[in-house]
Amino acid sequence: MGSGTTPPGEPALPGDDEPGPLDAAHEALARARRAARARGLRPGSPAGSRRQRRAPTASTTSRDDRDPHPVGAEIDRLVAARGWDTDVQVGSVVGRWRTIVGDRVADNVEVVAFEGTTLTVRAASTAWATQMRLLVSTVLGRIEQEVGGGIVTEIVVRGPGGPSWRKGPLSAGGRGPRDTYG
Questions:
Q1: Distance from C-alpha of 86 to C-alpha of 108, rounded to nearest angstrom
Q2: What single-letter DSSP state applies at residue 49?
Q3: Where in the sequence is the signal peptide annotated (predicted)?
Q4: pLDDT tens digits, 108-128
Q5: How far apart are CA 56 and CA 62, in angstroms?
Q6: Is 97 helix (H, G, I), strand (E, B) or coil?
Q7: Helices (H), the chain
Q8: CB-based contacts of 50: which residues, under 8 Å, 6+ apart?
Q9: 56-to-51, 53, 59, 60, 70 alpha-carbon distances in Å
Q10: Residue 119 contacts residue 154 (beta carbons within 8 Å)
Q11: Could you give the CA distance from residue 131 to residue 140 in angstroms, rounded to a whole number?
Q12: Closest CA to 152 of 166, 141, 168, 164
């Protein structure tokens, strides 16, 4: 219906010759497509495809803040901006402990705390605690070479700890069990 012609033998209805609202919509869409083609656009293509690329000029080849940066440089910038320099260097000492002191010492002496510029280590035996106390100045020099000066100024060496009978912050004082170990 709506085509403007009526089949033979049927009476013409009053609204057959008038264009309907759907016809008006189709006509508006056709006009919009013709206008887009006249401007050089392709109807139905994504909006980003009509962007024109510019050839690089001398001013666009210089480094810009929007250009990609190496990840390491960005991490260094973030660490400096947040004031994490010292914390990262402390973590570097703990992470490089085996490289700084060597495999044999690292197997028997471990880092247990780092407060301020004081590094506390615990030895597996009293012999290793004595050996580590003799190596303190050498280890301080190696830390200064690996990480930088002023990060560690003192190393406190602890011997092996015995079993602790304290089981929490609220415990009764006293000597503990007396007949367990002879």
A1: 27
A2: G
A3: none
A4: 999 998 888 888 999 999 999
A5: 10
A6: helix
A7: 21-38, 71-82, 85-95, 97-101, 103-108, 126-134, 136-146
A8: 41, 42
A9: 15, 9, 8, 6, 22
A10: yes
A11: 14
A12: 141
Structure tokens, 16:
């057959």
Backbone angles phi, psi at 165, to 5 degrees: -100, 0
Give the dihedral sign, CA 125/128/133/138.
negative
Q: Record the tokens describing residue 139, joined without a space.
A: 């280890």
Tens digit of each residue's pLDDT (9 = 90 or more) over 13-72: 555 566 677 888 888 888 888 887 887 776 555 555 455 555 555 555 566 778 888 888
Please report where in the chains the tokens 């506390």 appear, as a residue: 120
Asked if 113 contacts 122 with a C-beta cutoff of 8 angstroms, the reply is: no
Distances (CA, A) of 171 to 12, 175, 180: 104, 12, 19
The answer for residues whose C-beta is within 8 angstroms of residue 98's C-beta and 6 or more apart is 106
Question: Facing residues of 157 across strands?
Answer: 121
In a 3-state reduction of DSSP, which class is residue 52?
coil
Structure-block tokens of residue 100 = 């700084």
pTM score > 0.85 for this model?
no
Q: Name the residue type at position 31.
A: R
The rounded distance, in Å, linking the Cα atoms of 108 and 90 is 20
